[in-house]
Amino acid sequence: MSEEILINVSPVETRVALVDNGVLQELHIERSHSRGFVGNIYKGKVVRVLPGMQAAFVDIGLERTGFIHVQELLPEPTEGEPRATESPDIRTLVREGQPLLVQVSKDPIGTKGARLTCHITLSSRYLVYMPNSSHIGVSVRIDDDGERQRLRDAVQTQVREQAIDGGFIVRTVAEGIDVQAVVADIPFLQKLWQDLSGRVAAVTAPGIIYEDMPLTLRSLRDLARLPLEKIRVDSRQSWTQMREFANQYCPQLVNIIECYQGERPLLDLYGVEDEIARALDPRVGLKSNGYLIIEQTEAMTTVDVNTGAFVGRRNLEETIFKTNMEAAGAIARQLRVRNIGGIIVLDFIDMQDPEHQRQVLRTLEKALDRDHAKTNITGVSELGLVEMTRKRTRESLGQMLCESCSVCGGRGQVKSAETVCYEVFREILREARAYDNDKFLVLAASVVVDRLLDEDAAYVADLEAFIGRTIEFQVEPLFTQEQYDIVLV
């Protein structure tokens, strides 16, 4: 495995690409005018309480109010205490106009505002501090039981000796790290929380209390984990900032942070720009000549697996199995690159052999193990579908880089020229019954006018004879295929 982090910095946006053996695995984009809000802490004001939804809307100073559910208002259970199965009426917890200290857990997506929580957390290189909890935990991605116990004991000992209030979660990057480096984050996080707590009273709601680090530094904190070959950044200013940050918090990374000064753009050099363009296409080709079709909607994302031109060598079942095995790895990578979250339905090609089904699921699970986002996979359903979820904290790549088509309105289809022609005929009949004019002038796109004068010329002649008036046509270059106008002359 040869992982590298490539960072492209410009005045308008920063892009971070995680590349493994030359293949793009993850892409993070932050634009200067619309930075992400996840991790930011605000002093908000409750503007509306919805008892029917057990939720409230909170003004935190953004364009849209944030949303908080009653579960995010309840205090975290103490160590060993079971979580409550029933929630109290939200009106007993908050009221309209009440100031509320909240943290953004999900960025605004589409028409939805930010998702908020009162369970405040602060992250460092190796630890996550929870000032309102007493829980000491270790990331579930650290599998070794001995390592988990070593890290937990070190943090518990430090918390007990220093009489620190609050809880901690040891992050995945702490695996194999000397305990002194891990526990060194504890006083930093406690001091940061004390400073933030002191600012709360001085800030008028809605107002920001804490803003998370820029993407360049977050990539060191959240993405960089050994073994990592290189971290390349094409901005000397950002390179200096990253080295200073690494010197203080992750010195083992200092020597692999490199300032790229080549003539070719950094992301072009690794083919990342081409990968981004392909990630906006619903069709994804596989090496075997099979392909995936990825369709993203607001409710869910569907992935359809097809053999395409792959005909195999032995038999149909073997051909299907090989296609599905390749698709499983490709799907996991595409979910990371496109940052697709929410409910995802995978339509693998039907497999008769239960062992083949198990192997495909294991391949998918193994490929998703390296995903930073939390995923949950079900088995193969009776319809041959695999349902899964992937935690969504920010917009997908398509939502960030694209907007709805102004022609089709996001449908992905436009009415055919034939359909528009028949609409024109119906509209002329309606106008002919309502008005007594000499002739009609039809303004439409060239493809529609061409059809009216060619394939549908006989229908036009019959219509003229029926209404007793002349119909003329004129191409309007600015009209889309669906647009037309009928002028009474």
Q: According to CATH, what is the class of the largest domain?
A: Mainly Beta
- State the CATH topology of the largest domain: OB fold (Dihydrolipoamide Acetyltransferase, E2P)
Report the average pLDDT across residues.
Answer: 87
Number of helices: 13
Q: How much strand? A: 25-35%
- Choose one word for the global shape: globular
**Count of structural domains:** 4
Largest sheet: 6 strands, antiparallel
Number of DSSP strand runs: 24
Poorly predicted runs are none
Instruction: Report the radius of gyration as a whole number of Å.
Output: 29 Å
Q: Using the 3D structure, state the CATH architecture of the largest domain.
A: Beta Barrel
The helix content is: 25-40%
Annotated CATH homologous superfamily of the largest domain:
Nucleic acid-binding proteins
Structural class: alpha+beta
Q: Between the first and last Cα atoms, what is the distance in angstroms?
A: 73 Å
Give structural notes:
By secondary structure, the protein is an alpha+beta fold. It folds into 4 domains: 92 residues, Nucleotidyltransferase, domain 5 (2-Layer Sandwich); 170 residues, Beta Barrel (OB fold (Dihydrolipoamide Acetyltransferase, E2P)); 121 residues, no CATH class; 72 residues, Hypothetical Protein Ychn, Chain: A (3-Layer(aba) Sandwich), CATH 3.40.1260.20. The chain is built from 13 helices and 24 strands. The strands form 5 sheets. Strands 4, 5, 6, 7, 8 and 13 form a 6-stranded antiparallel β-sheet that branches. The protein has a 6-stranded mixed β-sheet with strand order 16-17-18-19-21-20, with helices on one face. Strands 3-2-1-14-15 form a 5-stranded mixed β-sheet. Strand 14, helix 5 and strand 15 form a beta-alpha-beta unit. Helix 8 packs parallel to helix 9. The termini are far apart. The relative contact order is 0.09. The mean pLDDT is 87.
